[in-house]
Amino acid sequence: MKTIGTIVLIGYLACLASPAAALSGEQADAQRTARMKWWTEARFGMFIHWGLYALPARHEWVKQHEAVTDEAYEQYFEHFNPDLYDPKEWARLAKNAGMKYFVVTTKHHEGFCLWDSKYTDYKATKTPYGKDLIKPMVEAFRAEGLRVGFYHSLLDWHHPEYPIDRFHPMFNNLEFREKAKGRDIRKYAEYLHNQVREILTGFGRVDCLFMDFSFPGENGKGRHDWQSEKLLKMIRELQPEIILNDRLDLLDVPGGWDYRTPEQFMPREWVTMNGKRVPWETCQTFSGSWGYHRDEATWKSVRQLVVMLIETVSKGGNLLLNVGPTARGTFDDRAKERLEEIGRWMNDHSRAIYGCTAAPDDFAPPQNCLLTFNPETKRLYVHVLEWPMGALHLEGYAGKVKYAQLLNDASEVRYIEESRSSEVGYLPGERKAAAAANLILRLPIQQPNVTVPVIELFLK
Ligand code: GLC
């Protein structure tokens, strides 16, 4: 691992020394790995979707889902007044859950801006609330030690120069489309670029940027509409250390993205591009909606969420877990309870998450378990999803482990190597030849009282 670190560092320094020189693929990869080090170690962040859609409280796409006109949507702007907004409380909740960074919607598809943009009046400062929402949020999260990320929508369902496309709320309104015929995407792109410059210059260092999203093709929009390459150049110039997602429609452009973003599903394995493992982050909701949704009932359980985090890390990815604050400016109880419980688990088990990744290929997960691995400390974490009856068989692990303990209380887990006993788990004489290298953990009958127990194996 040390050698990889050194190569990465040399690659990184070489790039800094000659910024003008074109980078080889390998150098670019090494540079990206170095830039993303904090992010890959962090593994767990908070997504925040907040905007006018918190008032109707039935999905952030409500304007499109219900084909709401600008006039009818205006009532939410007129009533936007999150009087209980306390970003310090949000930051505490995120930190206590074990999250290391956050990504907030500066603007979602509805077009409403949470900061005091000089390019529009469609912003928080012009609502009854009357204040910028982003600055205090950035300050509060930074004060709790979290890194700062912005989500910014490429789509804009409010801007007068945004041409109607297949996702626009007025797509099926022929009269509206007729009137909107003269809209000029170049003017909208200029607005988009101006605002991205604003958010990347007005709040100090921005660690991540999540641009959302491209849908090229008929009645769609992609890199030519957004002028993505120009935008990319500006983003990299303004914030050279920034970590950028993959939705600018620049997947084939070198440096056009830093990580893939599987949304609301769990990839089957480590995400690859052209056969190579790449950094990835899955963004997930508690309940299916990103914006606050009062009547949505499909909330995931704490256990599902903890397993989701473990599974993500076991495949080398990050988890960005979303909260949709209410129009009063609060996290609702369902979100709070889950964050607190995840935090309880993280308090004892974060060592099996931070700095961890997929296990080396020669360690197969035992039955009903997921594995994470810290390459620096050489510790392997066995996350036991179903507590077994007295013993856990680790096939092929014999001779590789020097000590084992439960992570929640550091109590020793005794083990035997199968070569010394053929009896456990088999009928006499039944032991398979292939099982010769098994390691058998002796577990207590009672499962430790935690959401998902973890066994920490110190490898030789
Ligand atoms: C989607 C949706 C959106 C959500 C986002 C999160 O693209 O349009 O509502 O913000 O994904 O990844």
Write the layout of secondary structure elements.
Layout: H1 2-17, H2 25-35, H3 37-42, E1 44-48, H4 62-65, H5 70-78, H6 87-96, E2 101-107, H7 134-143, E3 147-153, H8 174-179, H9 185-201, E4 208-212, H10 223-226, H11 228-238, E5 243-244, E6 272-273, E7 276-277, E8 281-284, H12 302-314, E9 318-323, H13 333-349, E10 369-374, E11 379-384, E12 391-394, E13 401-406, E14 415-417, E15 439-442, E16 454-459
Parallel strand pairs: 1-2, 1-9, 2-3, 3-4, 4-5, 8-9
Antiparallel strand pairs: 6-7, 10-11, 11-16, 12-15, 13-16, 14-15
Helix pairs in contact: 1-2, 6-7, 6-13, 9-11, 12-13
The chain binds alpha-D-glucopyranose.
Alpha-D-glucopyranose (GLC) is lined by residues 49, 60-61, 212-213, 263, 283, 290.
Describe, in plain words, how this protein is organized in 3D.
Helix 6 (87-96) runs parallel beside helix 7, helix 9 packs parallel to helix 11 (228-238) and helix 12 (302-314) packs across helix 13. This protein has 460 residues and is of the alpha/beta class. It folds into three domains: 1-25; 36-352, Alpha-Beta Barrel (TIM Barrel); 369-459, Golgi alpha-mannosidase II (Immunoglobulin-like, Sandwich), CATH 2.60.40.1180. It has a seven-stranded parallel β-sheet with strand order 5-4-3-2-1-9-8. The chain has a four-stranded antiparallel β-sheet with strand order 10-11-16-13. It has a three-stranded antiparallel β-sheet with strand order 12-15-14, with no helix packed on it. It contains 13 helices and 16 strands. The protein has helices at residues 2-17, 25-35, 37-42, 62-65, 70-78, 87-96, 134-143, 174-179, 185-201, 223-226, 228-238, 302-314, 333-349, and strands spanning 44-48, 101-107, 147-153, 208-212, 243-244, 272-273, 276-277, 281-284, 318-323, 369-374, 379-384, 391-394, 401-406, 415-417, 439-442, 454-459. 39% of the residues are buried. Bound molecules: alpha-D-glucopyranose (GLC). The site of alpha-D-glucopyranose has 8 residues, from loops.
